[in-house]
UniProtKB/TrEMBL annotation:
SMART domains: Gp_dh_N. The keyword 4Fe-4S does not apply. Its EC number is 1.2.1.-. Residues 106-267 form the Glyceraldehyde 3-phosphate dehydrogenase NAD(P) binding domain. It comes from Corynebacterium suedekumii. Belongs to the glyceraldehyde-3-phosphate dehydrogenase family. This is Glyceraldehyde-3-phosphate dehydrogenase. PROSITE patterns: GAPDH (PS00071). GO terms for molecular function: glyceraldehyde-3-phosphate dehydrogenase (NAD+) (phosphorylating) activity. Keywords: Oxidoreductase. It comes from the Bacteria. InterPro entries: GlycerAld/Erythrose_P_DH, GlycerAld_3-P_DH_AS, GlycerAld_3-P_DH_cat, GlycerAld_3-P_DH_NAD(P)-bd, Glyceraldehyde-3-P_DH_1, NAD(P)-bd_dom_sf.
Length: 464
């Protein structure tokens, strides 16, 4: 299976998965574990002998760029009762047979290189190797001393929360370049987003990802568009005014060529909006309250000191800090049907990453706990929101178990409470890495580089 997967990737730009678990770059153990994962789908372990014939047939087909779930293809063929696997696959993959063509990656620039910026860099480097649709070309920062380049490379190489960078990093001081797994990252020193000539570095029609949070309105972010070589701007924070706030998977279809500035909302909004959508579609939400238990962030003080925000001046590592959050109200920017239905607050706690949102909802109909959990489990496995929503049902999980998750949010099934038409759902989310993956999905959407996934995933309303 390993050489078959490798050839499909090299020759056809086909990425293979088993029920969403990517197998590109996988080991033999990874493949076996992915097949065991099928128990969540079909209540039984998927035999390797069931997917091997699918992989062999895919290797003989003239496929174009795609992300193909061989687990779903194998089970679909079994359920169809058919005897001609090749004919079944040609019908399921008709859109990508004979469509292979050369693709040209879109340039991406990171404006700012803090917590989110460095995680975006890690993801972009890995995505370029896997899909080739977008490529990280440069990072723009303010220079902080003679050792600035070395220190920034070191922070990319090692992370106290997310561990070591998977690969090699070297520094070219003479040319202000960081090399990461063969990717050339030009470090550009500038104090203004409007004064960088990206074309001087061979960068054209770039998507600039502003992760500084300094500008959140159209006027401020439009400064990026004044620089040569910039085509679009993505903000890693909630936008103000008339900017399009996007939660990928929910309203990314609203992105048009005319939208030059797009915002990726907040980590909490991304964590809760997909879950709220599917619950509202199925049961109807009258109103609710969202309480987030959120890891501390850089804008808080390590020890007690003056802070312009209420309570945030108190020591972040010693206190639970009650504060406000706009995430509940921001849901309506992606889902207008929630306008005026949600309230919210936040409690900052002394952990460096992974947060939790408690959704306390009043529904249109009475619900059963097991039925709700079963529905959310199916959403996480079969729906077109499976990259946004995950589900877990384990008595021992705690926050550190979700460090590094690529999902926007993970429903904790054991914590679900249902009483009449009252429902409480607990959603974990990696407010750094999970959110960063949502940002990258928007960047790829803007660049026209999102991989097409086959077989087609279902709408949550189609699940029984």
């Amino acid at each position: 299976m390993l050489p078959l997967i490798g050839r499909l990737h090299r020759n056809n730009d086909v990425v293979v998965s088993i029920f969403g678990r990517l197998l590109v770059g996988a080991t033999d153990i990874d493949i076996i574990k992915a097949h065991r994962y099928a128990r969540r789908v079909a209540d039984r372990e998927m035999p390797l002998a069931q997917t091997l014939p699918v992989l062999k047939e895919l290797g003989e087909m003239n496929l174009g760029t795609a992300s193909i779930d061989v687990g779903r293809l194998a089970t679909g063929f079994e359920k169809s009762g058919g005897t001609d696997l090749r004919a079944y696959l040609e019908e399921e993959l008709a859109e990508v047979v004979g469509t292979h063509s050369e693709t040209y990656p879109t340039d991406v620039v990171l404006y700012g290189f803090g917590r989110i910026g460095r995680l975006l860099a890690r993801i972009l480097i890995k995505r370029e190797a896997t899909y080739g649709g977008v490529r990280l070309r440069a990072v723009v920062v303010r220079k902080n001393g003679e050792d600035d380049l070395v220190k920034r490379a070191s922070l990319l190489r090692r992370d106290s929360v997310h561990g070591a960078f998977d690969g090699t990093i070297t520094v070219d001081k003479d040319n202000d370049v960081i090399w990461a797994n063969g990717t050339k990252i030009q470090v550009i020193y500038s104090n203004s987003p409007a004064e960088v000539d990206y074309t001087a570095y061979g960068i054209n029609d770039a998507v600039v990802v502003d992760n500084t949070g300094r500008w959140r309105d159209r006027e401020g972010l439009s400064q990026h568009l004044e620089s040569k070589g910039v085509a679009r701007v993505v903000l890693t924070a909630p936008g103000k005014g008339d900017l399009l706030n996007v939660v990928y998977g929910i309203n990314h279809d609203k992105i048009t060529d005319d939208e030059k500035i797009i915002t990726a909302a907040s980590c909490t909004t991304n964590g809760i909006t997909p879950v709220l959508k599917v619950l509202n579609d199925r049961y109807g939400v009258q109103h609710g309250h969202v309480e987030t238990v959120h890891s501390f962030t850089n804008d808080q003080n390590l020890i007690d000191n003056f802070h312009k925000g209420s309570r945030r001046g108190r020591a972040a590592g010693l206190n639970m800090v009650l504060t406000e959050t706009g995430a509940a109200k921001a849901v309506s920017k992606a889902l207008p049907e929630f306008e005026g239905k949600l309230t919210g607050n936040a409690i900052r706690v002394p952990t460096p990453d992974v947060s939790m949102a408690v959704l306390n909802l009043t529904l249109d109909t009475e619900v059963d706990r097991d039925e709700v959990n079963n529905f959310l489990r199916k959403v996480s496995l079969h729906s077109n929101l499976r990259q946004q929503i995950s589900y877990i049902h384990s008595p021992e999980v705690v926050s550190t178990d979700f460090v590094g998750t690529t999902h926007a949010g993970i429903v904790d099934g054991l914590a679900t409470i249902a009483s009449g038409n009252h429902l409480v759902v607990y959603v974990w989310y990696d407010n750094e890495f999970g959110y960063s993956n949502q940002v990258i999905r928007i960047v790829e959407e803007v660049a026209g580089a999102r991989p097409q996934i086959y077989p087609r995933r279902l709408e949550s309303t189609e699940l029984k």
